[in-house]
Write a structure and sequence with these properties.
It contains twelve helices and 14 strands. It is α+β, with helices and mostly antiparallel strands and 397 residues long. The chain folds into three domains: 124 residues, no CATH class; 135 residues, no CATH class; 121 residues. It has a five-stranded mixed β-sheet with strand order 10-11-12-13-14, sandwiched between helices. Strands 4-5-6-7 form a four-stranded antiparallel β-sheet, with no helix packed on it. The chain has a three-stranded antiparallel β-sheet with strand order 1-9-2. Helix 10 links the parallel strand 12 and strand 13. Helix 7 crosses helix 9. The chain is globular and about 70 Å long. It binds zinc ion. The site of zinc ion (ZN) has 8 residues, from loops. Zinc ion binds next to loops.
Amino acid sequence: MAVKERDTSRERRDLALTACCAAAIAETDLEEDPLRRAGRLMDCLGLLRSAHPASVAATLDMRALRRGLREGISALLPADSDGREAFAAMVLIDEQGLLRGEVEDLGREHLVPRQALEGYWPWAQIRAEQEEQRLFEEIRRLQPEDYERVRVLLATHPCGDLDGLLDAWGGLWGRFALFEPVASWPWCNVAGWCFPCPRCRWPMRAQQDPGGVVVLSCDAHSADGVGYACRPGRGAGMPHLEGIGRNSPPVSGFPAAGGHLAVSRPVWRFFTLPGQMEVGFRDELARTKDLLIVLYPGGDAYDLHVTALHPLVAKEWRIDAKAWQSLPALGDALLKRPPLPGDGPLIIMVPHRQRAETQVLREQLAHCPDLRVATDRELLREVRRWCALGSAEGVTS
Ligand SMILES: [Zn+2]
């Protein structure tokens, strides 16, 4: 009974989050007809109310919904019986009235499909974990060496012009539907140009604020200080971007026209971002003596196998990198995963920028002795310490 109650409360919370994400997208969709936009918001409010007991639902009106989207959605979510407060302060629409980049992933990761949203829903009708599995199935039929090449290419070449991609991918190009034409993505178009993030090299989101300035941000790296502003255009050619974040080096763009492609959003989230963590991890330790690092040793079972042959006895780490926006949603997906055969735990490696939320994930997985959680930086430090190579200075994530 206790388990059933917990599941019900989780589903209510997922439903409320789904409604909030859909409402935030409707509220910031300024190209939508105002009447239709109001209808979308009313549907979202109805869904949100259905996630609450009647007494609370009666207090939730449009004003409360709009305020919650801008000031923090904790007031809109049902009480958190699991003690997981990861969303307490989450804001879905920022002070400039722009949609926060993580909304789309959050919505997909917590998705509870409802008929009321059909037709408005800008994402696939399936949950993130199903989409992740579908993508894995698509490429797992490859020979092991090709599998590794594809996984590394998705990390190193997530975006580019067709000629460059053809050069990089060679005979593997065209075997999967992993790329989409950037020209079909209005959300990253700045006066006909598209700008990749300096960190992950995937197109940054471009949104016009009420003052007419286009603000560019990466949905994964804006929290790390990646952000740009583009003032209303003067003349033709590539618009000039001004770095507005603490980690915003000069970037150049490319025409958002035919011939330029990028991996789809789920591929970026489930392959490119974790792949960059894995490749970065391997490269950081490349010159470490007596350390053997194998990428994708058993296909998609896990991502990295690290063996330290030094100092006295061999020690091994089995690592799976994950870059989900929502660690509670990742925890739910991991709980459904069959145990990995073999010795030692599977280490779930998450980006160091999510370190504040890892405790929640650890608590969620407390009854899974075969799973351990660490950030990429913590793991690098651990491996280096084992190899007696000193501190983890210079490590990036
Ligand atoms: Zn990025």
